[in-house]
Write a structure and sequence with these properties.
alpha/beta; 5-stranded parallel beta sheet; 13 strands; 15% strand; globular
Length: 390
């Protein structure tokens, strides 16, 4: 056994707890390497040493947490209690959203995963299918304040972040916070704003702060950005830049309802008519506790290596100009942890990764055929990449 496989075997057998993700024993390492369609110009051919190194970095990337690890896919008693609380909140959140958005379980799950994982959500679809209603329902369910920004070509960056105003009485400049200073921020029709205004969200989404005139102002925590966008084929839209797309943990679509559901909507059952009757399932403190509990969901080294393999393979997939970044791999792990919570488990399985991979990766892949091609690529990678034994 040479040095690199030995490192991978030792990593997979190590029982430790690093920076919020629980690393558990997985037995023999059986993750295969997918042969890419072509070798990426940067980084060369993927090899086991690269994947082990990147997997080790991936499992140490989460924020700190406290529960101790046991050898049976479980946490300490206090940690298990926190996870149980997150499981209950997740179920209540999905049930609450289902009263408003009818017949779209995929979009509801994506919204709940975004809330539990702490990631931002992009909803792309045609007008009138309930994108804004879903965002409002999510904010109401989380007991959080909602700040709405309507995208349009004349929107300025300061209309989002805030601006410094000179006070003649005090003789000083005062910062007046913009609508981004809220727990849940809805940016409706984001791609109707020009790139300079879209860029105003880059710092807020990644660093959870706003910098104006040399001063940095922290945003409320937790902080969730929900953006909607219309298909690029529609008039008056500006494509989101790669760095903007990469900051959205998940992207989802709602789609047209079936005939039965649409008949209920026109009779004022569900939709915006149900928002007035929607109550919160938690407070912002409970929401934050659920996020921290989700971060402690156990991830084996084999699962982390599987995620890294998928993301690295996307960079050399046919027809892909820009593949998934290391940030994408981190959020794929976090989304899988949230999916495990919704499945009432305290550990991640390969099925969790598969369930969220398309929503996490497809919108990040730059192709000549749009996001539809990205969906096809991700599904192909899931079919061709061997998954570790659960």
């Amino acid at each position: 056994m040479n040095g690199v496989p030995a490192l991978g075997f030792a990593l997979s057998c190590l029982v430790t707890h690093v920076s919020g993700i629980q690393i558990l024993p997985n037995g023999a390492d059986n993750v295969g390497v997918m042969e890419p369609a072509r070798i990426a110009e940067q980084g060369g051919p993927p090899n086991r040493g690269d994947r082990v190194t990147e997997a080790r970095a991936l499992v140490t990337s989460a924020r700190p947490a406290t529960p101790e690890v046991t050898a049976d896919h479980g946490a300490s008693e206090s940690g298990r209690s926190r996870i149980d609380g997150a499981i209950v909140l997740g179920r209540e959140l999905v049930a609450n959203l289902s009263h408003v958005l009818l017949g779209t379980p995929g979009a509801l799950t994506a919204a709940a995963i975004a809330a539990l994982s702490g990631g931002h959500l992009l909803i792309e679809d045609v007008p009138g299918v309930g994108k804004t209603v879903l965002a409002r329902a999510l904010a109401l369910s989380l007991g959080a304040d909602l700040s709405r920004v309507q995208g349009h070509p004349d929107l300025l960056p300061s209309d989002i972040t805030g601006i410094s105003v000179f006070s003649a009485d005090a003789g000083t400049w005062e910062f007046r916070p913009g609508p981004v200073f809220a727990h849940v921020v809805l940016v409706d029709e984001l791609n109707r704003t020009p790139p300079r205004t879209q860029a105003a969200l880059l710092e807020t989404m990644e660093e959870q702060q706003v910098s104006v005139d040399g001063e940095s102002y922290p945003l409320p925590h937790p902080h969730l950005v929900i953006a909607t966008q219309n298909p690029l084929s529609q008039l008056g839209t500006y494509p989101l830049v790669e760095s903007q797309l990469d900051r959205f943990a998940l992207a989802t679509a709602i789609g047209y309802p079936d005939a039965e559901t649409e008949a209920q909507l026109v009779l004022h059952h569900g939709g915006k008519f149900a928002l007035s009757e929607l109550g919160p399932v938690c407070t912002t403190t409970g929401w934050l506790d659920a996020q921290r509990a989700t971060e402690t969901v156990a991830v084996t080294p084999a699962i982390a290596e599987y995620v890294v393999t998928l993301c690295r393979a996307s960079r050399s997939a046919a027809g892909v100009r820009l593949g998934a970044s290391p940030r994408a791999a981190i959020w794929l792990i976090r989304a899988a942890q949230a999916h495990a919570i919704l499945s009432a488990r305290s550990y991640v399985t390969p099925d969790d990764v598969k369930a969220v991979a398309t929503a996490c990766l497809a919108h990040r892949l730059m192709t000549d055929e749009g996001v539809e091609r990205g969906v096809v690529v991700v599904r192909g990678l899931l079919e061709s990449t061997p998954a570790p034994r659960p």
